[in-house]
Amino acid sequence: MNIRTHQTINRALCGTPIEQGEGFCRIELLTSDRMTVDDHHLVHGGFVFGLADHAAMLAVNDPNVVLGSASVKFLKPVQPNQMLIAEAHVNTVEGKKQNVHVKIMRQTDIVFDGNFVCFVLNKHVLDS
Length: 128
Known about the structure:
With 128 residues, the chain is of the alpha+beta class. 16% of the residues lie in helices and 45% in strands. The chain has one domain (11-120): Hotdog Thioesterase (Thiol Ester Dehydrase, Chain A, Roll).
């Protein structure tokens, strides 16, 4: 894998890449108790979204990629000690804009589905 972005991300919280190529990425995340929000052990959706966002960024794989917007659906609840696999595919490229589809699976269940609009900037978003 030749990962060019998000190199210092916390993989325990946002997932570990297991496959990455041109316009594609697959990332796994084992959920944990520290991600839960209540006594029912529901994992906060922000961790699921973080996994999806990480996958989208690595599918684009440019050091200057940023998220512009996302349209997502949380389809099933997630609990601790579940292995999630996110797959991201770049669908279209229009100049600096790239549309990325991300699906997250828990075994055979789709738990998340989303479309991410990413932009590749000329320089890092924080460079002045």
